Prior knowledge:
The protein is α/β, with parallel strands linked by helices. 32% of the residues lie in helices and 18% in strands. The chain has nine helices and eight strands. It has helices spanning 53-61, 86-100, 102-105, 119-130, 134-140, 167-174, 181-186, 214-225, 259-272, and strands at residues 5-7, 16-20, 33-39, 65-70, 107-117, 151-155, 200-205, 230-235. An eight-stranded mixed β-sheet has the order 1-2-4-3-5-6-7-8, with helices on both faces. α2 packs across α4 (119-130).
Amino acid sequence: MKCERIYLYEDRQDVYLDTYVRDTSPEYPTNKRPAMLIFPGGGYGFCSDREAEPIANQYLAAGLNCFVLRYSIGENASRRMPEFSQPLLDASLAMAIIRKNAEEWNIDTDKIAIIGFSAGGHLAGSLATMWNDEAIWNELDIPAESNKPNAAILAYPVLTFGKRTHGGTRDNLLGKYCDDEALVKKYSLENNVSKDTPPTFIMHTAEDGSVPVVNSLNFATSLSQNEIPFELHVFPFGGHGMSTGTKEVCHVENKHAARWVELSVKWLKQTFDM
């Protein structure tokens, strides 16, 4: 397996991509694999370890090459506001890097998915709904559409910056502009779903006390209204930030809600015809 750390910017050590790329072999039916770009959660204040490598291990086992992005957080998250979301620039650049190296890493460029948790879900949702902003391509000097995700998985995501949001996520991303109504609307992602949004899998729990489930319900409604294929699972029990829901990463195991990983793999295999 090829595991390396790629720094996205020459002058920064805090934004990097960790790769988990399987070796090739003449014994395999094919060496071209789908890929998964992972955005851990953390309220745009940190990047959770529990939603990084443990998640990569799950999708590696399902046959995908995986990548974990440690994106801009804290003051660096809001450093380009109101012009740009710096984490969205990071995510776009990471996706472009994966596509640029697809031949070396044996990746099928039409089968690159993203997954995000909590605030990482906001970042994944941002990329899913805003990847086609030409200003991003021009700012990063990347080929048009090279940042396009082919599928998105959102786990207990922050998706709205309206009344039923996670305040820390909103405030860390928008910074001093957190009361700007136009920006609040722009980064309330249910407003951005379009025909260019990829197929989406969403999981949440009904009793999530940090990110209300209405975030996922409203986004799913927008997907439906725009005729975007989606699958939505709302589990009755479970707090916020369960990751895989297993003892490996959780103090309290949630066997029922932990099924979301298996369900997402089945959905992804159907979506990508794996």
